[in-house]
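Q: What would this chain look like folded?
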Amino acid sequence: MPKSAWPLEVSPTRMRITYDTQADALYIQLRQGKFLRNREVAEGIILDVGEGDALLGIEILEASSRFAPSDLARVEVLMPLELTALST
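A: My prediction, written as structure tokens:
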């Protein structure tokens, strides 16, 4: 991983959020899978799509113009208790 990107892991095998300071891009990896294509849904918002139209990730370009630096440095995960129990 490049020095400019830092992972904020929500789950080590499934979801990961990274911010690349050089590219000024935020990436939210939702799941692993074989990448097939991407689709720009709004200017600078790109979806990575895999087999079976599975949403693999979301890339946000020019992230520093969309989020405050404090927003990029902190992530809060809210999950129903019944889902938390399944992951332990």
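Helices lie at 63-66, 69-72, 81-87.
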